[in-house]
Amino acid sequence: LQILEHKTEDIIEMIKKDEIDAALLATPLHEKSITERVLYYEPFYLFLSPGHPYMKKAKIKQDDLDINDIWLLNKGNCFRDQVLNICSRIESRSEGNINFESGNFETLKNMVQTGDGYTILPHMALDGLTNAQKKLIKPFSSPIPTREISLITHKDCLKQKVTDLIEEEILGTIPDELRKIKAKNRQTIEFSIN
């Protein structure tokens, strides 16, 4: 068993070419040659700088987001694309801002916590937060932006027993609160591959 990390578009091509047997990705992909086995839904949260005005709100509406305050992951990361889709209705209101992008959530959390603005995190990125950091988390109001996580294979995959076991193992590690989440009252955020 080899476990690899690649960009979404590369994974899709590797599945199509039978270079890998399965992958764990945010879906839906809308690829006819790929089978998607939805495993769970993962809600998004805001992680705010300590003095941010959103700290006064119990829940945040997507329409409240200010695109000028957000810290993003690097281009090529599907979560970045999903965050930009959440913010797609929001116009940039100023120019000349410092643009910063990171390759991981830890750096984003550190930049927000010690600076200004906010970032958007998936539920699993909340693991390991300190009590002080947990106070910087704000949920979205309904419909809650959520990503769908699936185990994908080529539609003609012959290793069904192996992928069944992989699915079982993944589901065994997912926190109970994620396994209970259904798509109802949630807005599944998609991303597009350019």
Oligomer: single chain
Report Rg.
18 Å
Number of continuous helical runs = 6
Low-confidence stretches: 89-102
Mean pLDDT: 80
Shape call: elongated
Q: Give helix and strand order, one letter per element, not per position.
A: HEEEHEHEHEEHHE
What is the beta-strand fraction? 15-25%
- State the helical fraction: 25-40%
Helix- and strand-based class?
alpha/beta
Please summarize the sheet with the most strands. Answer: 6 strands, mixed
Distance between the termini: 30 Å
Give the total of beta strands. Answer: 8
Task: Give an overview of the whole structure.
With 194 residues, this protein is of the alpha/beta class. It is built from 6 helices and 8 strands; from the N terminus they run αβββαβαβαββααβ. The strands form 2 sheets. Strands 1, 2, 5, 6, 7 and 8 form a 6-stranded mixed sheet that branches. A two-stranded parallel sheet has the order 3-4. α2 (78-86) links the parallel β3 (72-73) and β4. The longest helix has 14 residues, at 160-173. The chain starts with 7 loop residues before the first helix and ends in a 6-residue tail after the last strand. 23% of the residues are buried.
